[in-house]
Q: What sequence folds into this?
C-alpha cells in the first residue's frame, strides 16, 4: 500500500515517468479471443474495459480474477472480482457469460487460480485477452507467459493517456510509485520464477534509478 507524504511531481518527474509508462504499455491491437481475463486491480476502469470488449464481441467468455490485494486489502470490503462483476452486469454483460475468481491476491495467483477454475468448469480456452491497468500491461503479459506458456495471449487496458489517467482515488504520485515498483519486479521476478524475462532498455532503467533517488520508492521490493 502506498501512503503518506509523496515526493513532488515536477516536470522532470513527469518526463521520467512517461518513459516508464511507455515501456510498461505493449500497444497490442485487440483481436478476437476465446476469453477475456480481467486481472484484479484497485481501478474499476479495468472492469469497464473488459466488459466493453465483451459487449464488442471480442470473446464469448468474460473472467474477473481478484480477491483483496496490495492496494485493496483493508480498503475494499469485497473481493475485486465481485465488484468488477457487478460493474459488468450494470453495463449489460449477462451472468452466464461471466466467471468470477475471488481468492487471488497477486498476478501469479490470478493466472493460476483462473486456470484451476476453468479446469473445474471443463473449459479450455486456447487464447486470452488480458485486461489490466496501462502501466501493468507488460508485467501481466510476463506473468501469464510464465504460468500458462502454451496459451496465446494479448494484453490491453483502459484507453486513457498518461496525463489523463489520475483520478481522485488514484493520484499521479501513486501511479508513478506503482510504475517504479513494477519495473523493479520486471527485472527481479524472472530470477524468482514468477515471470518470463524481458529486456529493459538502458534509458528506461536510468529513469527508474532517478525516480527512486527522488523518493519514488514506496512500491519497491524490500
A:
Amino acid at each position: 500500500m502506498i501512503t503518506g507524504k509523496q515526493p513532488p511531481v515536477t516536470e522532470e518527474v513527469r518526463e521520467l515517468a512517461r518513459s516508464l509508462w511507455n515501456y510498461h504499455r505493449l500497444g497490442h491491437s485487440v483481436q478476437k479471443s476465446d476469453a477475456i481475463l480481467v486481472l484484479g486491480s484497485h481501478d474499476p476502469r479495468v472492469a469497464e474495459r473488459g466488459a466493453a470488449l465483451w459487449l464488442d464481441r471480442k470473446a464469448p467468455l468474460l473472467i474477473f480474477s481478484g480477491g483483496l490485494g496490495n492496494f485493496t486489502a483493508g480498503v475494499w470490503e469485497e473481493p475485486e472480482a465481485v465488484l468488477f462483476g457487478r460493474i459488468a452486469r450494470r453495463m449489460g454483460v449477462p451472468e452466464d457469460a461471466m466467471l468470477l475468481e475471488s481468492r487471488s491476491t497477486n498476478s501469479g495467483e490470478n493466472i493460476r487460480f483462473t486456470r484451476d477454475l476453468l479446469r473445474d468448469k471443463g473449459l479450455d480456452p486456447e487464447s486470452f485477452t488480458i485486461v489490466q491497468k496501462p502501466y501493468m500491461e507488460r508485467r501481466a503479459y510476463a506473468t501469464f507467459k510464465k504460468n500458462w506458456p502454451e496459451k496465446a495471449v494479448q494484453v490491453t487496458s483502459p484507453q486513457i493517456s498518461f496525463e489523463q489517467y489520475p483520478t481522485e482515488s488514484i493520484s499521479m504520485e501513486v501511479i508513478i510509485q506503482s510504475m517504479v515498483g513494477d519495473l523493479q519486479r520486471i527485472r527481479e521476478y524472472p530470477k524468482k520464477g514468477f515471470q518470463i524475462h524481458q529486456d529493459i532498455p538502458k534509458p528506461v532503467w536510468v529513469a527508474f534509478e532517478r525516480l527512486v533517488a527522488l523518493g519514488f520508492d514506496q512500491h519497491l521490493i524490500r
Q: What stands out?
A: The CA atoms of residues 68 and 79 lie 5 Å apart. Helices lie at 11-24, 44-55, 80-91, 107-120, 137-147, 172-192, 202-213. The two ends are 13 Å apart (CA to CA). The chain has a mean pLDDT of 94.
